[in-house]
UniProtKB/TrEMBL annotation:
The keyword Transmembrane applies. Gene3D superfamilies: CAP (3.40.33.10). Keywords: Membrane, Transmembrane, Transmembrane helix. It comes from Paractinoplanes globisporus. This is CAP domain-containing protein. Residues 40-103 are annotated as: Disordered. The chain crosses the membrane at residues 12-31.
C-alpha cells in the first residue's frame, strides 16, 4: 500500500506511573522521495482598533434668573426607592471540541492494525472509547496549530491525558502522524493505513512506532483519524496495557 505524500510520524513510550518518556522528539520521514516540510499552521493575525483620544467636554454654565419673591417651599415626603439588585450571570464551562472519526474509518484502521498483529502471532487490540477521546482531543490540538507533537503548549503529558479521561493504565505509548489525502471515507482510510504500514516497515534501531503497534503488553488502543480543511489527514494511536 502506498504511503500518502508529505507523511511524517512520531512516537513516544511511557512506562509506569512516573510517566518517564522514552524517545521524545524522535521523527521519521516515511519515503524520503515524497517527504515535504511539515505544514505550517496559519499564522494568527492580531489586529488592533485605532486608539482614539478621549476628550472631556467643557461644562456649559448658565445663570439662573433672580426670583422676585422667594416662595415658601412645600414640605414633601418621598418614599425611598428600592435598590435594584443585579445578579452576575453564571459562568458556563466550555470544553474543547472533540473531533469525531467515522465508525467505518475506525473499524477499517483497527482491523488493519490487528491483522498486522495477527501476522506476528499477537492478540488483537480492543478499541477503548475513553482512550479514543483522549486521542481525539490531542488530534484537535495538533490540527489547531500545535503540529506534530506529543505534548502541545498547555497540554498535560501522555499518561495524565489518559487518566483525565478515566483510563486505567500502567504502561502506555503513542504514535502520531499525518499525510495528505482525498476527502472521501475510502481515501482517509487509505491514508491512515498507509501511515500504519510505514510504521510497521521500520527497522531497528529506529522502529519505535513498530514496537508500539506490536507491543505484547498493550491490550487496548485509542484511535483518532481526522482530515483537516487543508486536506491533511492526522492520526493519533494511543496504547495502554
Amino acid at each position: 500500500m502506498s504511503l500518502p505524500t508529505a507523511a511524517r510520524l512520531r512516537y513516544t513510550l511511557v512506562a509506569g506511573a512516573t510517566a518517564v518518556v522514552i524517545g521524545t522528539g524522535f521523527t521519521v520521514i516515511g519515503l524520503s522521495r515524497h517527504a515535504e516540510a511539515e505544514p505550517t499552521p496559519a499564522a494568527a493575525v492580531a489586529s488592533e482598533l485605532p486608539s482614539e483620544e478621549a476628550t472631556t467636554p467643557s461644562p456649559s454654565i448658565t445663570e439662573a434668573p433672580t426670583p422676585s419673591a422667594t416662595p415658601t417651599p412645600k414640605k414633601t415626603t418621598t418614599s425611598p426607592k428600592p435598590r435594584k439588585t443585579t445578579t452576575a450571570p453564571k459562568k458556563t464551562k466550555t470544553t474543547a471540541p472533540v473531533p469525531s472519526t467515522g465508525d467505518n474509518v475506525l473499524d477499517a484502521v483497527l482491523q488493519h492494525i490487528n491483522a498486522a498483529r495477527a501476522d506476528e502471532g499477537l492478540a488483537a487490540l480492543t478499541l477503548d472509547t475513553k482512550l479514543s477521546k483522549a486521542s481525539a482531543l490531542h488530534t484537535q490540538l495538533m490540527i489547531n496549530g500545535c503540529g506534530l507533537e506529543h505534548e502541545c503548549p498547555g497540554e498535560k503529558g501522555l499518561g495524565d491525558r489518559f487518566s483525565a479521561q478515566g483510563v486505567n493504565w500502567s504502561s502506555a505509548g503513542e504514535n502520531i502522524g499525518f499525510g495528505s489525502s482525498g476527502s472521501s471515507e475510502a481515501a482517509i482510510i487509505r491514508a491512515a493505513n498507509g501511515l500504519t504500514d510505514s510504521m510497521l516497515a521500520e527497522k531497528p534501531p529506529n522502529d519505535g512506532h513498530r514496537k508500539n503497534l506490536l507491543n505484547t503488553g498493550f491490550k487496548r488502543i485509542g484511535l483518532s483519524i481526522v482530515r483537516d480543511s487543508k486536506g491533511i489527514t492526522w492520526m493519533t494511536q494511543d496504547f495502554v496495557n
